Each structure stands twice: as structure tokens, then as C-alpha cells.
């Protein structure tokens, strides 16, 4: 399958990996929106959260996000985002979570 993040997982395209385990890889976003902007990506191809049918994989993703945030020194907080589908603004159709931190992020929900 022709998938950008599958190619990154396979190592056919370069990325700046900061962490990896059996289930996920974590690498720097090419267009960072904050001083730390990482992408947590399952090795297995799933198009989006709509296809995340494995609770163990969901747990592995969350654990990797937390570990990557800690390793990045985000002691003042950070944000985890999974844009999902067209209305969710997802551009790359391989499930990924954004880890954002290193500056005060604006509120995204009505206060
Ligand atoms: P989405 O809008 O799908 O939630 O986010 C996709 C993210 O992937 C964007 O933040 C974009 O900057 C990032 N991205 C797109 N292509 C590449 C790439 O080739 N390498 C890396 N490291 N990030 C990418
Ligand atoms: Zn893929």
C-alpha cells in the first residue's frame, strides 16, 4: 500500500525518530507547531481512530506518548491530539497522535 507513514515505519523514508517499541514509533513532525511536536504512529496500518479496534494497541500508543513527553522534558504540560477524518482535519490517513508542548498552547474548546 502506498502510505506515507507506512513508508516511514518501514524506514523507506527518513524521519527523526525519538522512540520506538514493538507497537509504535515516535518521530518529529516535519512542520512543528510547537517547540516539541512529535507524532506517535502505530507500526500497523490503521487509517484513523475509527479503525482502532485493539485496546492493547491504544494503550501502547498512550504509553509511548507519555514516555516521549517525559523524555522531551515537557514537565509543564503537553497536549495529545488525534485528528480523525475529514471533519477532524486529518491529512495523513495512517493513525497518528500529535504530542505538542514547550509553549503555552491556546485553548481549543470553549471555556
Ligand atoms: P494530520 O493533519 O493528518 O493530523 O497531521 C499530519 C502531520 O504529519 C502534519 O503535522 C504534518 O506536518 C506531518 N507530516 C506530513 N508529512 C510528513 C513527513 O514526511 N515527515 C514527517 N516527519 N511529518 C510529516
Ligand atoms: Zn500506513
Layout of helices and strands:
Blueprint: H1 4-10, E1 17-20, E2 24-28, E3 36-42, H2 55-71, E4 78-81, E5 97-101
What does this structure look like?
- This protein has one domain: 2-Layer Sandwich (HIT family, subunit A), CATH 3.30.428.
- 24% of the residues are buried.
- It is of the alpha+beta class and 111 residues long.
- The protein is built from 2 helices and 5 strands; from the N terminus they run H-E-E-E-H-E-E.
- The protein has a 5-stranded antiparallel beta sheet with strand order 1-2-3-5-4, with helices on one face.
- Strand 1 and strand 2 form a beta hairpin.
- The model has no long low-confidence stretch (mean pLDDT 97).
- The termini are far apart.
- The protein is globular, with a radius of gyration of 14 Å.
- The protein is 22% helix and 23% strand.
- The structure holds guanosine-5'-monophosphate and zinc ion (ZN).
Describe what is shown at a glance.
By secondary structure, the protein is α+β, with helices and mostly antiparallel strands. The protein is 22% helix and 23% strand.
The percentage of residues in β strands lies in 15-25%
CATH class designation: Alpha Beta
What do we call the CATH topology?
HIT family, subunit A
Number of helices: 2
Instruction: Report the C-alpha radius of gyration, rounded.
Output: 14 Å
Helicity, as a percent range: 10-25%
Oligomer: single chain
Sheet with the most strands, sense and barrel status: 5 strands, antiparallel
Q: Give the distinct bound molecules.
A: guanosine-5'-monophosphate, zinc ion
CATH superfamily: HIT-like
Let me know the average pLDDT: 97
| Stretches with pLDDT under 50, minimum 5 residues | none
Q: What is the SS-derived class? A: alpha+beta
Biggest sheet, spatial arrangement of strands: 1-2-3-5-4
SSE order: HEEEHEE
In whole angstroms, how far apart are the ends? 42 Å
Amino acid at each position: 500500500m502506498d502510505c506515507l507513514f507506512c513508508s516511514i515505519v518501514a524506514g523507506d523514508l527518513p524521519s527523526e525518530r525519538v522512540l520506538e517499541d514493538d507497537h509504535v514509533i515516535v518521530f518529529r513532525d516535519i512542520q512543528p507547531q510547537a517547540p516539541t511536536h512529535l507524532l506517535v504512529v502505530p507500526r500497523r496500518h490503521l487509517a484513523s481512530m475509527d479503525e482502532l479496534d485493539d485496546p492493547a494497541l491504544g494503550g501502547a500508543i498512550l504509553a509511548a506518548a507519555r514516555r516521549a513527553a517525559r523524555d522531551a522534558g515537557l514537565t509543564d504540560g503537553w497536549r495529545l491530539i488525534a485528528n480523525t477524518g475529514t471533519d477532524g482535519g486529518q491529512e495523513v490517513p495512517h493513525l497518528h497522535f500529535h504530542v505538542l508542548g514547550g509553549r503555552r498552547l491556546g485553548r481549543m474548546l470553549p471555556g
